[in-house]
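Final report, closing paragraph on structural work. Over the funding period we assembled a curated collection of sequence-structure pairs, and we close with a single example.
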Amino acid sequence: MSEGTDVIAACTAALLQPGRVAPGDRVLVAFSGGVDSVVLLHALRFALELRGVEVVAAHFDHRMRPGSGADARWAQALADRWQVPLELGAAVAAPRSETTARRARYEWLYGVRARVDARWILTAHHADDQAETVLFRVARGTGVAGLRGIPVRRGCLLRPLLRIWKGELEAYAKLHDLDYQVDPTNTDVGFARNLIRHQVIPELEGAAPGVRRALVRLSRLAAGEESAWRVLLQRLVDEVVVEHGPRRVVLHRSVLLDWPRGLQARVLRHFVRTMGGTLGEAGTRALTEFTKMGASGRSVSFSGGLLLARDFDRLVLIREEAVRDERPLEIPAPGRRAKGRQLRGAGEASIGGRRLVARWSTAGLAADDDEPSREDEVASFPLARLAFPLRLRPWRAGDRIRLPYGLKKLKKLLGEARIPASEREHVAVLADAGGRVVWVPGLARAADLEPVPGEEILQIGIGDGFAE
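Its predicted structure, as stored:
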């Protein structure tokens, strides 16, 4: 671009895309007083195509240098001259870093947006900012997602100058005889961004001319790749997920292991994000390794208060504070016994916060108890046809049980039994070593595990009221 009108055309084209700024909208412009924000405010105020857009400017004093208050007075004078309402704010104390300053600024901007009832917040980030951001993230070892750099839109934030170069903005300011402020801290190479802007990129341009444009191109390519991944990821999620709730996600481990390690990592990171956590490189590596090597019944904790556990051929991602509400019980294999020696045992499980006590015996439970409570459920199974270990655990979406007329989904079984959705997290099942449901106490038992005469049986009792 060489003409100032091209800057206006690019800016309005970015703003007036479907789903973005529309006539009648009120927009809040982050206005530092530098050349970038002056050009943005001027374009918004005087572009014919944007006459129906209501503009409010917002100036925030970070108090990071002496005399910064004068910038606010200058901004007010310019806003008055252009007849643009101006909101003024200032940091309570000078931020100690660029990151802290940025957070304080955006927190204030979001507050102003709510107060003035603006639909959008506009910032004056430009193509040079994009190049610097991508290079900075490369230096920090970012992944592909980080290479996208600064997005044109994020929520209510819009950056309409992101494809315009700094030189083009300066040419626009000169063409329209615009006055602007120069912040002396922008030349301080003690700040990482300034070092990249004033020293690193110029040196790279000398060695590889066009590096700025190459970095911006890289950001566009990465954004395209990530956009494609979002479409593909949903298909992968549909294939691997068994259950997806606010406190717990259950995945098919065998499906996940069929994929390359990179796909596994992406899917795991996706579900961790849905649970409110984050995964860095080390955390991703630990989870993919656990997915492959972790034994059933084992778990691994990671940042964000999350835990990944293996439950036979399923992986369970859960918040650690919710683990107390879900403590399965394992009934181990009987092992070798002397002829005629009885097998018996007992244990506790916690299913969705509901305490259950289970007991089992080859001699029959009636011989061990005077009076089982009314709530107890008792079932007998052929010992030799059970695949141990058995596990008393919560039911999962996708669970099925074999009934006399065929396999039936537990979700449908619970619906037919009129068990409210709010109570289903308390429903327990007994599953075998292969994950097959053999019994839903109080509802159904596997039709192919009815004992026949002559078989040694294992009688199992489960309930809230068993005495220990």
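The radius of gyration is 32 Å. DSSP finds twelve helices and 23 strands in the chain. We thank the funder for supporting this effort.
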